[in-house]
Prior knowledge:
Layout: H1 6-30, H2 34-60, H3 64-67, H4 71-79, H5 85-89, H6 97-121, H7 125-154
Amino acid sequence: MQVTNFTQLIDWTRQLHQQLAQVLTRGGELHSQERARMLLKSLAEQEQELANTLHEFDQQTKTEALDAYVPYLYSAFEQRPINTQQVYTQPFDRLSIAEISKMMFEVHDQVVDFYQRLAQESQVPEAKELVDSLLELEQEAEKQIASKIQGMEDM
């Protein structure tokens, strides 16, 4: 996907979380271990909620800045691609809780890192504010993932 403006970036991120929710749901339906099923279901719900939040964010943040061409956005996206293939090829129904945890953090760490770098490169205040908001959403999601995984490990 070519990402040249913030609307496309938000949509790409929303799609990533939507698809992650779907693969987690499938894994949760098929997993043989109860705790892993519970974790996958919980993580799938969180990913779906994040996708919905990003959709609402896009709808509520309609400004000209969202649709304006952003040259550094395209180059940043191309130079530091986020490896999403690992998400779609993982047999979540056969992963241990530790492996599920590792996978979730790998994906979210890549997105957080991308947004952090993008925030550093943003020169327009409105764009930086937008990226900071997206970064905050992703960081909060990571904290929730950590909490859910820790809770499952404590069981």
